[in-house]
Design brief:
- By secondary structure, this protein is an alpha+beta fold.
- It folds into 5 domains: 100 residues, Rossmann fold (3-Layer(aba) Sandwich), CATH 3.40.50.20; 69 residues, ATP-grasp fold, A domain (Dna Ligase, domain 1), CATH 3.30.1490.20; 122 residues, D-amino Acid Aminotransferase, Chain A, domain 1 (2-Layer Sandwich), CATH 3.30.470; 157 residues, D-amino Acid Aminotransferase, Chain A, domain 1; 36 residues, no CATH class.
- It has 16 helices and 22 strands.
- It has an 8-stranded antiparallel beta sheet, with helices on both faces. A 5-stranded parallel beta sheet has the order 3-2-1-4-5.
- The N and C termini lie far apart (57 Å).
- The chain binds ligand MV4.
- The site of ligand MV4 has 17 residues, from strand 9 and strand 14.
């Protein structure tokens, strides 16, 4: 087993990986930019190395420099986390060439999957269903002819793409020439590669992904699906497993396809097969993510497998400790991503200092946070503050648990969070019914089918007058801030009510947490 691992990442995922290493008795080296000198991942690691200024290009994306640090500190392996260098095949090659282990797939599989068209070709050869499309030529004449065969609406996509960049929707042939030109320009700008291909548009799809794992001894399994349709602008907001859409038959068929895909490209370590599932429950391979995903904890929750430890063990050459038949889904898990963004202001990042945070704790509740009290959420990196994960007995139980946890998650400071918005999504009839296609959040937001309570989206600070806020969570939260941060009794004018929850500790007039706060239990709203 490895003795020392460098974690080439920051934030919650760096913290998550350090935790796994600590549990395994492996020493850790963190890397940090100027913006992260006092970050949680730096404090938790055994060692830390400064790698440059805040912009990722000058720090977390500097593969050579990070590799030098790993060698200088005597590391045997590098874990890239997600984002940054995690899907960079050249970096994986450089790590191996230096005699260290890249904790992730081999560079060959990363390259095949990195090109969306070579991935499609590999999947087609493996018998995995792909969306009908055309990728055989870059000439406008050929593409126009192919478009008429595919039919409309269709999508122009970037070969080097992912995340929707360079994607154009075409409703009629006349739109195609202009769309080809603008898609090529955008793709060249974003990826340095202007190649494009065509795909039939799958309308109102579910986005369902399968977690896969393969070792270096020829064993490959899937660890079931994650329903990721609740997203906005290609940013996932809520993920859950099992997917309300799948039955055992479809789950089995998609799982078989996912494992076939893994075997076809000689994949090793953790990966994710993304599928679109249409209204008729046809499924199509979309792309493969050759890394650990943000939403991996929900899979951990229902399967009982620690995916990060398994990544480390498999990278060290150990065989998978289970077969497909040993794996099952137990219960229902949901993840909410807590972002420093303001739903009332077009979801723009609302960054700044976190003055205090009170995380929900209880049976089946997990918080993966990369930010702690006193930390700053900056514009240099993703504005995700934390991931809140719950495991319930079944879907309704998990929803109830998540709503409870969101009501008891207090984040105060300059940041505005999407916590109140997440509660509204979870309470929405379509989410409650499991009817979440990729258009759901846009339709909910665009149709004003939601409402933010006044006070929930304002900048929370100790100076904001509590008496002017009709929002009770907010008032209670500021009261908590007053007590915890200022260590002084808050205003007795605060009504100690907690969002209608009669068993909330916020409600108690003495004892737990807010013992010194007076006031009675006036009924909520
Ligand atoms: C599609 C599609 C419908 N039909 N392809 C968006 C990002 C990129 N990874 C692929 N994407 C899509 N490809 C066909 N043929 C719809 C999307 C899509 C989407 C996919 C997954 C999750 C969220 C999405 C949001 C909008 C569009």
């Amino acid at each position: 087993m490895f003795r020392k691992i460098l974690i080439a990442n920051r934030g919650e995922i760096a913290v998550r990986i350090i935790r796994a290493c600590q549990e395994m008795g492996i020493a850790t080296v963190a890397v940090f930019s100027d913006a992260d000198e006092r970050a949680l991942h730096v404090a938790l690691a055994d060692e830390a190395a400064h790698i440059g200024p805040p912009p990722p290009r000058e720090s977390y994306l500097r593969g050579e420099r990070i590799l030098q640090v790993a060698q200088a500190r005597g590391c045997d392996a590098i874990h890239p986390g997600y984002g940054f260098l995690s899907e960079n095949a050249d970096f994986a090659d450089a790590v191996s060439a230096a005699g260290l282990t890249f904790i992730g797939p081999g560079a060959h599989a990363m390259r095949v999957m990195g090109s969306k068209t070579s991935a499609r070709a590999a999947m087609q050869a493996a018998g995995v269903p792909i969306v009908p499309g055309y990728q055989e030529s870059q000439s406008d004449a050929d593409l126009l002819e192919a478009a008429q065969v595919i039919g409309f609406p269709l999508l122009v996509k970037a070969t080097a793409g992912g995340g929707g960049k360079g994607m154009r929707i075409i409703h009629a042939l006349a739109e195609l020439p202009h769309a080809l030109e603008s898609a090529r320009r955008e793709a060249l700008n974003a990826f340095g590669d202007d190649r494009i291909y065509l795909e039939k548009l799958i309308a109102h799809p579910h986005h369902i992904e399968f977690q896969v794992f393969a070792d270096h001894h020829g064993n490959a399994v899937h660890l079931f699906e994650r329903e990721c349709s609740v997203q906005r602008r290609h940013q996932k907001i809520i993920e859950e497993t099992p997917s309300p859409l799948l039955d055992d038959t479809l789950r089995w068929r998609m799982g078989e396809a996912a494992v076939a895909a893994v075997c076809a490209v000689g994949y090793t370590n953790a990966g994710t097969l993304e599928f679109l599932v249409d209204a008729q429950r046809n499924f199509y391979f979309l792309e493969m993510n050759t890394r650990l995903q943000v939403e991996h904890p929900i899979t951990e929750a229902v399967t009982g497998v620690d995916l990060v430890k398994l990544q480390i063990r498999v990278a060290a050459g150990e065989p998978l400790p289970f077969t497909q038949a040993d794996l099952s889904q137990r219960g229902h898990a949901i993840e909410c991503r807590i972002y420093a963004e303001d739903p009332a202001n077009n979801f723009l990042p609302a960054i700044g200092k976190v003055l205090t945070a009170v995380e929900p704790v209880g049976p089946g509740v997990r918080v993966d946070a990369g930010v702690t009290i006193g930390d700053e959420v900056t514009l240099h990196y993703d504005p995700m503050i934390a991931k809140l994960i719950v495991l319930g007995e079944h879907r309704q139980d998990a929803i109830g648990k998540m709503l409870w946890a969101l009501r008891h998650y207090v984040i105060l400071g300059d940041v505005v969070t999407n916590i109140a918005f997440l509660r509204q999504v979870l309470s929405h009839p379509r989410f409650q019914a499991g009817d979440t296609t990729t258009d759901f959040v846009d339709e909910m937001v665009g149709g004003r089918d939601w409402r933010l309570e006044i006070g929930e989206s304002v900048v929370a600070s100790p100076s904001f007058p509590i008496s002017q806020s009709p929002n009770l969570d907010f008032a209670v939260a500021v009261a908590a801030l007053a007590e915890i941060v200022q260590n002084a009794p808050p205003s007795s004018t605060v009504d100690m009510v907690a969002d209608g929850d009669p068993f909330s500790p916020w409600r108690q007039s003495s004892g737990f947490r807010l013992g010194s706060v007076g006031g009675g239990g006036k009924p909520a709203r």
